[in-house]
Amino acid sequence: PQTIYLKDYTPFGWQVADVHLTVALAPNATRVKSRIHFVPNPNAPEQEFFLHGEELNLIRAAIDGEEVAPEITPQGLRCKVPSGPFLWESEVEIAPAENFALEGLYMSNGMYCTQCEAEGFRKITYYPDRPDVMATFTVRIEGDEKVKLSNGNPTDSGEGWAEWHDPWPKPAYLFALVAGDLVNHPGEFTTRSGKTVELNIWVRPGDEDKCAFGMEALKASMKWDEEVYGREYDLDIFNIVAVDDFNMGAMENKGLNIFNSSCVLASPETSTDANFERIEAIIAHEYFHNWTGNRITCRDWFQLCLKEGLTVFRDSQFTSDMRSAEVKRISDVIDLRARQFPEDQGPLSHPVRPESFQEINNFYTATVYEKGAEVIGMLKRLVGDEDYAKALDLYFERHDGDAATIEDWLKVFEDATGRDLAQFKRWYSQSGTPHLSVTEDHADGVYTLTFKQHTPPTPGQSEKAPQVLPIAVGLLNPNGDEVVPTTVLEMTEAEQSFSFDGLSSKPVPSILRGFSAPVVLERETAPEEKRFLLAHDTDAFNRWEASRDLARACLYAMITEGAGPDTAWIDALEQVVRDADLDPAFRALMLSLPTQSELVQMLHARGVTPDPDAIYAATEALKNAMAERWSALLPALREESAVTAAYSPDAEQSGKRALGNAVLALQTRLDGGKAAQAQYDAADNMTMQLSALSCLISAGAEETALAAFEAQWKDDRLVMDKWFALQVAATAPENAATRAGALTERADFDWKNPNRFRAVMGSLAMNHAGFHAKDGSGYKLLADWLIRLDEKNPQTTARMCSVFQTWKRYDTQRQALMQAELERIAAKPGLSRDVTEMVTRLLS
Ligand code: DPP
Ligand code: ZN
């Protein structure tokens, strides 16, 4: 496959004045006619006329009304064109019913829908399918379907046809078309300038009762973006469509967002609190893209973080405002460490702005998204809230309508604040996670912190330069009072000291408050000091982190030395967990132990080869010890967290349920599932039902409940995804691969549906010790299925390959088994470009 480089960027030789499409729908023979006005681009070097196009059957092409015979290649077509402006016309035939890659125009449960980001439009018609070519679109849809939607505003319709016009110039990746017998949940929003916008959530008949929450989330997002970023919606109508077969979570097509149904449909009976929160965040995310992504888009796909990092940052601000900022921050860091850190520290490591790719779909990663958002968080911390707001205003003013770059983005901050961001820019080009170590000194009333930073080498980058690190620090005196409130130290050197004077006694430092930079903090601290911070830190994140550090240290000793559980930590934690003045959601997070992925990273960093079975055994032993030590406390905690009011997915109620269910998991270790069964039987919402089921599975007492659950929910695809997933994720490791294998034999294992495939295979990978079973059965099962899925859906297959990214961290036997499976995948004839790139990088 061909490698594409950022440094080779060249503008397209023409501008597109406007696009007119006529799409005559038929499952196996959809006809797409295009009329496109091309005008020579004065800012581009001379080049031959090339349009992208894949898997298209060209029926006819004409220039200025004269038929032409272009040269067709697997990637597109070449054609001789006039030197001035001209009208391009083409007609192609495509087969949406046979499109299982879910890219371009395809069918899902009888409805037509599209997915064009990143490069799907070229599977619909011949076009310069690149984000810097922006045009207005008029779309005529012909078909018998009741509902026919495209971008922009509806302009006209009649029997068997509908026409839409999008007045905002946009790149082809934001094109969308939907047609089907859908029903809508309507709504309305009045913008701050008084314009009324029609809102709709379109679903298959039967799902109407699962739209109300999404609609409220949409309105809240529209309001929030006006209030916080000054951004108003810019069309008369905003449509959301729920689709069952979808590779991603959702897609921000202009005025016509298309959602994986799992990311929009919600009801208390069928969705958990976590589902509700995620739906709220994704609706916000896609809506926020209207400005950060659509009105200002990316010049090329290397700039993906320009829209994704910023939009993730914006949706995290939104969630923080709607719910608890502290809980959101801790959850985001857990996720960053579980998904982005392993990526950044393994063979798939790449900069937030990559410099080359073979298949761009492989770069919709935790690094581009989540680290990309962390970079913006650091920038905001460095310049301050006021200057951040000024810079964003300037960004929207200066670049509205542009296809922009990271250089444009940083220049806006430089111009708005007068700062030089040349060094900060390294965050976009340097891959890898910086390690930050710290020593302290106290003499003559002066307290000094000395930091050293160092980033280990990553693929293609052996030498690393120092990064700009905003290190938020607070100091506590030995009584537990804060003597220096949160201060942001700006570290720019490889080694740098910061002093605080007027401190007669040596303070206790609280370092990297709020996780102010995405680094690995290395600091050997006495457990007493950690327990002190656990009890007294005013920064919620560092309070949680102190406990997490103690848990990691405890598990490390249990795994490597066969030590017993750290009862001093368990007792210190108890004080926090039983503190009724604290937010239950925060207390629930305090109860969560380091993820297996986190422990693998810690062991690897300390030169210990991680043994998945030992990690699992130690974690289990620690949970048992917590349960036993707190046997009297647990029932009281569950009582305290009981919710008696009618179900609401709000922060308050879901926090209580999170605490109650974390406690139930511990209780189950003592009663073998008695309390869980009682909760299962009494549950009237999915949060309570599913967590009870999870406990029953862990206890091996699930048979009755599992059958009851299936009988109750067999007709609900999204709920059954949970049923599939939970059995594999929560079962004992020795059963995981067998169980996953057995589930794939079922008739309702619809493996071409990405949600169902991920429910089983993604959960297998998450059952850490199960996936890494010594006999290689987990690896083999997954590889078998990846090989099979690649023929249908390369994108989802490629993404799932990343579960092998840590393969070199394990013992030689496991390494050999994983390597063999990766080589088996690589050797498959006709392997997709997507998966070829992934396995090549994994094996390099
Ligand atoms: N739809 C995906 C997202 O919003 C890709 N743009 O992140
Ligand atoms: Zn996005």
TrEMBL record:
<dbReference type="Pfam" id="PF11940">
    <property type="entry name" value="DUF3458"/>
</dbReference>
<feature type="domain" description="Peptidase M1 alanyl aminopeptidase Ig-like fold">
    <location>
        <begin position="432"/>
        <end position="523"/>
    </location>
</feature>
<keyword id="KW-0378">Hydrolase</keyword>
<dbReference type="GO" id="GO:0016285">
    <property type="term" value="F:alanyl aminopeptidase activity"/>
</dbReference>
<dbReference type="InterPro" id="IPR042097">
    <property type="entry name" value="Aminopeptidase_N-like_N_sf"/>
</dbReference>
<feature type="domain" description="Peptidase M1 alanyl aminopeptidase C-terminal">
    <location>
        <begin position="528"/>
        <end position="843"/>
    </location>
</feature>
<keyword id="KW-0031">Aminopeptidase</keyword>
<feature type="domain" description="Peptidase M1 membrane alanine aminopeptidase">
    <location>
        <begin position="213"/>
        <end position="427"/>
    </location>
</feature>
<dbReference type="GO" id="GO:0008237">
    <property type="term" value="F:metallopeptidase activity"/>
</dbReference>
<dbReference type="GO" id="GO:0008270">
    <property type="term" value="F:zinc ion binding"/>
</dbReference>
<keyword id="KW-0479">Metal-binding</keyword>
<dbReference type="InterPro" id="IPR038438">
    <property type="entry name" value="PepN_Ig-like_sf"/>
</dbReference>
<dbReference type="InterPro" id="IPR001930">
    <property type="entry name" value="Peptidase_M1"/>
</dbReference>
<dbReference type="Pfam" id="PF17432">
    <property type="entry name" value="DUF3458_C"/>
</dbReference>
<protein>
    <recommendedName>
        <fullName>Aminopeptidase N</fullName>
        <ecNumber>3.4.11.2</ecNumber>
    </recommendedName>
</protein>
<comment type="similarity">
    <text>Belongs to the peptidase M1 family.</text>
</comment>
<dbReference type="InterPro" id="IPR035414">
    <property type="entry name" value="Peptidase_M1_pepN_Ig-like"/>
</dbReference>
<dbReference type="InterPro" id="IPR014782">
    <property type="entry name" value="Peptidase_M1_dom"/>
</dbReference>
<dbReference type="GO" id="GO:0006508">
    <property type="term" value="P:proteolysis"/>
</dbReference>
<keyword id="KW-0645">Protease</keyword>
<dbReference type="InterPro" id="IPR024601">
    <property type="entry name" value="Peptidase_M1_pepN_C"/>
</dbReference>
<keyword id="KW-0862">Zinc</keyword>
<keyword id="KW-0482">Metalloprotease</keyword>
<dbReference type="InterPro" id="IPR045357">
    <property type="entry name" value="Aminopeptidase_N-like_N"/>
</dbReference>
<dbReference type="InterPro" id="IPR027268">
    <property type="entry name" value="Peptidase_M4/M1_CTD_sf"/>
</dbReference>
<feature type="domain" description="Aminopeptidase N-like N-terminal">
    <location>
        <begin position="110"/>
        <end position="174"/>
    </location>
</feature>
<dbReference type="InterPro" id="IPR037144">
    <property type="entry name" value="Peptidase_M1_pepN_C_sf"/>
</dbReference>
<dbReference type="Pfam" id="PF17900">
    <property type="entry name" value="Peptidase_M1_N"/>
</dbReference>
<dbReference type="InterPro" id="IPR012779">
    <property type="entry name" value="Peptidase_M1_pepN"/>
</dbReference>
<dbReference type="Pfam" id="PF01433">
    <property type="entry name" value="Peptidase_M1"/>
</dbReference>
